Amino acid sequence: MIPVAEFKQFTEQQPAFKVLKPWWDVLAEYLTVAMLMIGVFGCTLQVTQDKIICLPSHEPRENLSETPCQQLLPRGVSEPMGDLRELSGLKNNLDLQQYSFINQLCYETALHWYAKYFPYLVVIHTLIFMVCTSFWFKFPGTSSKIEHFISILGKCFDSPWTTRALSEVSGENHKGPAGTIAGRATVTVTTTAGPGKAGEGEKEKVLAEPEKVVTEPPAVTLLDKKEGEQAKALFEKVKKFRMHVEEGDILYTMYIRQTVLKVCKFLAILVYNLVYVGKISFLVACRVETSEVTGYASFCCNHTKAHLFSKLAFCYISFVCVYGITCLYTLYWLFHRPLKEYSFRSVREETGMGDIPDVKNDFAFMLHLIDQYDSLYSKRFAVFLSEVSESRLKQLNLNHEWTAEKLRQKLQRNARGQLELALCMLPGLPDTVFELSEVEALRLEAIGDITFPPGLSQLVHLQELSLLHSPARLPFSSQIFLRDRLKVIRIKCEELREVPLWVFGLRGLEELHLEGLFPPELARAATLESLRELKQLKVLSLRSNAGKVPASVTDVAGHLQRLSLHNDGARLLALNSLKKLAVLRELELVACGLERIPHAVFSLGALQELDLRDNHLRSIEEILSFQHCRKLLTLRLWHNQIAYVPEHVRKLRGLEQLYLSHNKLETLPTQLGMCSSLRLLDVSHNGLHSLPAELGLLQNLQHLALSYNALEFLPDELFFCRKLRTLLLGYNQLSQLAPQVGALRALSRLELKGNRLEALPEELGNCEGLKKSGLLVEDTLYDGLPAEVRDRMEAE
């Protein structure tokens, strides 16, 4: 016997592949096993017992009208058997070897090929069926995708995250109308139950129990950090696998081809078996020219296994017919339904995950096959196709990683003295953030899409919010919460149109800081959302590439006190809107490509501070017009290309701070000494060779910065400025420091590094406020001071 296990290699598959075998493939597999057993059984009989037994025919040679075996047929089919009885008992004079020779010769020549090779044909055809059924599991181009899919599918099915996600959805569904009805029923019973009525009290208890069962979600297993990371990796695998598999349809095509091949094979087998099955005959007539050897040329032979083979053939044909019907149904299923598209509509409706995408091509085809096995696989697999589910997982992992205790360790005081929490480059916003009710400022930088949950209302002290490259969505309930509470918001994004619209509805906002670019086609118009709702806005900062001052700035003209426009070098052409800012106190026009001081500035009667840093100012002749800005206290003209200061500067008698550093000044006008209110003068990083003696008239001067110039000496009148606290003379060409420096008793900071000094005057000891930490000078020069001077400076 040939064991059936020898043919196992033709259909051997991984056990996990069974999920891709629909019922018709399973039925076909059992049918092929049955057909294989028929073939193996027939082959075994063919090899061990099949034989043919022949007897010579005594019919004369001249009578060739009928075959040698026709006389043995039943009555009515051939002639009577009377003559046969007359020959009974006759000896044929053949020995055993001659009989064996005749039997073998007639078996090879007279027996029909179908009767001889039927069992072998059955085995061969069955093996072909087996190969066709499992070929796509073996073909390299398809087996790798199938193995990968089965591996991911199993992990998704067994993942604790799948159970948790579906359980959460189940819990949310249970909080629907049923829970509401149960709650109302309980309230009704409670109202009717009076005190002291035990029976009604028990009834109330019984009716209240279903409320707990209905409204409480099922217990959800908590994921530990390792399980969360595994689920996160699964999401990435599913994304990459989907992108790879959806590109082609080789699995679908291969399955159709092998099914078509099986149908063609079935038709061929059925036709030729029905044609030749009648050739399996019990009696076989044999005519061979062996008269010289045996003395006979005609023989009547008996095929001993013909009856059994005939029954096996009909049984085999029956199995083939059933097999063919399954193949035809498979073809119908393949072409009747759009198997290259798969919709998760039912899963979306059942789970509530409305973002589960439909799939196509081979991915869709495999999911259709999975549904034939168990649709639960597709449902659990769909969890890993949902971005909502992925975001929930990321949120869960974030909450595991960033506990409330860990976040509290990151709390720091910012420049405003507020308790600030700064988070940077996280995949999301941990829910534990909203447990820190003491937070006053929240800074989020480079964090993915943020959707503030209702828990935002727990941050009752929140006043400042910074969103730096962190797009955020704010539900309406949270908008109401922040609308009157939030005082400062900072938004930084690639383009200003990405600024969330809810920002412009925060009516309690006092400071709005926006940073981003206008699209090239909109930069000239510089259209910004309306600011009408920002009734309390006092500070507006805009860093962009605007071609003009946004028209919406005039919406807050009645209460805006500080405006900062940073243009990153882009030229600001139209500034007429500034004239409407009647109460503006501080104005910054930084890197706006300005070549002249804008005339619109001179209309700002309430202006106190003006900053024109990093522009292209060469001449400031318009400085005379600043006399109309009677409240101007600070003028910053630093980091420009100013070559001289006009004499009109004397008109700025109320000016207290003047910044002219990083320009191209070589001299200062003597009229500068007439700015009697000046407390700070910064002319560092220029090319000054000398100073006018009139600087000594600045009796209110407290801070004078002269570093990085080319000064060779200082006028003695400079030391008449008795209120000087800071004097910066570093990196000049001074060869000596006058002893009059001792008259500056209020001096607390003196910089002398980078000069040509050989010694320091001992009169520095008279500067009572000057300590060693405030004296910036080379160590050798400091060591040259008298010991008592050094001791006094080092004394605390």
Q: What is the number of beta strands?
A: 24
Write down the overall geometry. Answer: rod-shaped
Low-confidence stretches: 75-87, 173-221
Major pleated sheet = 17 strands, mixed
Helix content: 25-40%
Helix-strand makeup class: alpha/beta
Count of alpha and pi helical runs: 19
Rounded to the nearest angstrom, the distance between the terminal CA atoms is 110 Å
What multimeric state do the chains show?
single chain
Return the average pLDDT rounded to an integer: 82
Strand percent estimate: 5-15%
How much is the radius of gyration in Å? 51 Å
Subcellular location: Cell membrane; Endoplasmic reticulum membrane; Lysosome membrane
Transmembrane segments: 27-47, 117-137, 313-335
Family: Belongs to the LRRC8 family.
Domain LRRC8 pannexin-like TM region: 1-331
Account of the protein in words:
The structure is a single chain. With 796 residues, the chain is α/β, with parallel strands linked by helices. Helices cover 36% and strands 12% of the residues. It has 19 helices and 24 strands. A hairpin with a 5-residue loop joins β6 and β7 (419-424). The chain starts with 22 loop residues before the first helix and ends with a helix. Residues 75-87 and 173-221 have low confidence and may be disordered.
